[in-house]
Amino acid sequence: MTPTEEAVTAVRQEFAIAAIGGPTAVLDYGGLRFVTDPTLDPPGDYGAYQKLEGPAVAAPALGDIDAVLLSHDLHADNLDRAGREFALRAPVILTGPKAAARIGPPAIGLAEFAEHQLPGTRSLVRVTAVPAQHGPLDGELDEAGNVNTEVSGFVLESDGLPTVYLSGDNAGIAPVVRIAARFPRIEVAVLHCGAARVPAKNSGRALTLSAARAVDVTALLDAAQVIPVHHRGWSIYSEGFDDLDREFTDAGLRSRLIPAPVGRWAIRREIA
């Protein structure tokens, strides 16, 4: 699978991943279409931060989808107003238990390492919720003991397809150590980067992966391909693709970093 310049359309692929803007990505996997953390509003003000770019692909152009993979529901830069409306029209939203309770149907809450199966075109697609830490290890805890808020990552598996890790808004290494132990053959990682910072939270320390930490995650998972999202389109990002380019180059891992121009498939395999 090599980078492609094909624009995202409603046409399904066997396996493909594209960035849409902010944390939002489209994944075609086993003939199913997933959308992650839908942020589909136009640019606007959200108080603590601002949305600077609208989505590169409008919701109708995505066609029908099979599931939304939602890392968390309480932050507008991961689920904005139009994104919430979009998610609620999906057949299913896979997310954390507390988020599912707040959202209601069609949301299904998955505890850490719980699995949900969907019928793909050739075999079952297994979606497993995996841990994430939305800030520094000693960060502020919510009422449930989560750093910042409950956040889920996901791992996708299906026979004959690469295993894909979706980090969600994870900033920590400790969750990735646990994920690597459970899934030793992750081939593709979609990482929320950008070192997102909000001055009022955790003394302004990073709430998502810095470029240097993304390199560490890549090395720990030994992922062959890394698609960065969550590093452009919102005011909270303190780092961009240039920072990723520099850190991956310094670490000798630049060949694994896949540029993901918004609205175009970063990697793609057609349905045979």
TrEMBL record:
Chain ranges of the Metallo-beta-lactamase domain: 33-231
Top-level taxon: Bacteria
GO MF annotation terms: hydrolase activity
InterPro entries in the cross-refs: Metallo-B-lactamas, RibonucZ/Hydroxyglut_hydro, UPF0173_UPF0282_UlaG_hydrolase
UniProt entry tagged with the keyword Hydrolase: yes
Keywords: Hydrolase
Transmembrane segments: none
Family annotation (Pfam families): Lactamase_B_2
The keyword Nucleus belongs to this UniProt entry's keyword annotation: no
Stored SUPFAM superfamilies: Metallo-hydrolase/oxidoreductase (SSF56281)
Gene3D superfamilies for the chain: Ribonuclease Z/Hydroxyacylglutathione hydrolase-like (3.60.15.10)
Protein name listed in UniProt: L-ascorbate metabolism protein UlaG (Beta-lactamase superfamily)
Source species of the chain: Naumannella cuiyingiana
